[in-house]
Design a protein that fits this description.
With about 200 residues, the chain is mostly beta strands. The chain has no helices and 18 strands.
């Protein structure tokens, strides 16, 4: 079975992007193909043959933004309503221009920066559909943070941070998970961690 499949050494490059899920890093090649390696029981190492322009990773899944604007996710299910570790292969229709993922939630941003988000577990997304416009977005475990076109940071549903995360102004990129949210600007990088 795939529980014996171990591809621990990364394949040769070159690569243009990297995403790391639980036990499985994946890399995007210049031709749009994805190579994944690590412990095979997560199912992530079996990357689809699609052509991608971007990839991102969550807890037990990797998602890619395909050249047709759809989002394709693969890996293992993390949902109490279906057998744990069941193979997961999901496609979310776009068109999207950007992709962000954290834990079990993936969001696509359209050309105007409007978000449409999906959960790889079947639960309701924490980022409201149609929210935005966002220049950067980070879905978190129970909420999220986004940056408006004017540079303002907005967060919601993040009581684990004791209120609004303390991050730098003028963020151009955000990332986060259940415990940490980070922001990067042209000259600085800052994170705020869940005090619990």
């Amino acid at each position: 079975g795939d529980e014996q499949t171990y591809l621990l050494d990364p394949p040769p490059g070159p690569f243009v992007a990297l995403a790391g899920a639980q036990r499985n890093p994946c890399a995007l090649r210049p031709d749009g193909r994805v190579a994944c390696w690590g412990y095979g029981q997560t199912g992530i190492a079996d990357a689809p043959a699609d052509e991608f322009v971007a990839i991102d990773a969550g807890f037990r899944a990797v998602c890619g933004l395909r050249t047709d604007g759809d989002i394709h996710c693969w890996g293992r299910a993390y949902d109490t309503s279906i057998p744990m570790d069941a193979p997961m292969d999901l496609v979310f229709s776009g068109p999207f221009e950007r992709l962000v993922m954290a834990d079990t939630e993936v969001c696509g941003l359209d050309a105007a920066g409007i978000a449409t988000c999906f959960s790889t577990t079947g639960s309701a997304p924490t980022v409201p559909d149609g929210s935005g416009p966002w220049t950067a977005l980070a879905p978190l475990d129970d909420g999220g943070c986004g940056v408006r076109p004017g540079g303002e940071l907005e967060c919601w549903g993040v009581p684990q941070f004791g209120g609004m995360p303390a991050l730098i102004d003028g963020a151009l990129a955000l990332t986060g998970n259940s415990w940490t949210v980070c922001a990067a600007s042209e000259s600085a990088f800052d994170c705020d961690r869940n005090p619990g």
